[in-house]
Amino acid sequence: MSDRLVRSCHATCRTALQKAVDEKLISVNPAIGCKLPPKKAQEMQVLTHEEMRRFLIQSKQDDFYELALLELATGMRRGEICALKWSDLDFETGALHIQRQAYHVDHGVVISEPKTKQSCRSIILPPSVLNVLRQYRETVDSEWMFPSPVKESEPLNPNGVYRKMVKILDRAQCKRVRFHDLRHTFATTALEHGMDIKTLSAIIGHVSSATTLDIYSHITDEMQANAANKIEKRFAKNEPFEQSEYETQKQAHPSAESFEPYKGKIRKSGTGGIYELNDHLFEGRYSPTNAYGKREVHTVYAKTREECERLLDEMIPKVRAEIKAEKERLKAEQNSLT
To answer: Which residues are paired to 283 by β-bridges?
Structure first.
């Protein structure tokens, strides 16, 4: 078993045995004092500035742009961003209130309160991000900011968000990172641009600024070294200071203007869309305006994209014929009344 699983099993056993001690079923908790494997923090990875640009360019092509942009601008946890509702965002002030989280279970998605008090917080969004969300709002017919492609009455599944992010990273020629690393990317960028630790801690919802400082101490150390080098250059007229990591990366990576997003097969306007729900399920969706002037959603499902394309192509003519027949019927009724 992995070290993490061993520690998890021990925590469960220790809690159960402590309950037995409290109820005087046993005198001592035998789980206390067990030798456990040490905690090993996963290595933090962040996207470079060029990788972020390519990631956003590809996200726009793959209908993931608004979520990706909001994540890189706020550093929210995956469950928090999936659980956002439009009522959480004040378009007048730009304040986004984070007050719930979503997580995956076998039967779907469950919404719960955040684990800590500090996780319930408000973030002021940059005007550019707010404008993007304002335009995106006009295309979403759901209380959830990022609704499920299967049921618009439910939020996105966090597992599905991760799978789509990985696919976009691969298409954008970026290194494969965890979704949590997008949170690290935001924090690193914020520190590079002069945000103080206390403000960053409040934005990302840490229990204290000490936690933030502990996680990102290597970044602040590097910033202090760069600042010292700049002061040395300015006042001591010494050798030029070393380039920052960002400047080095900027020279090492090609320009974002040369990146062309992967487009795949593009369906013509009015012929519906194909959505990958998981590794073995695709949804074909056609949403025409019916005879009564309202949008109605028609869907088909298949195990492969090719099969989904075929089923969608078969369904669309039938739906159009039904709408046409209903319009003719309504027109005939209106003529008979006049």
So the answer is: 275, 301
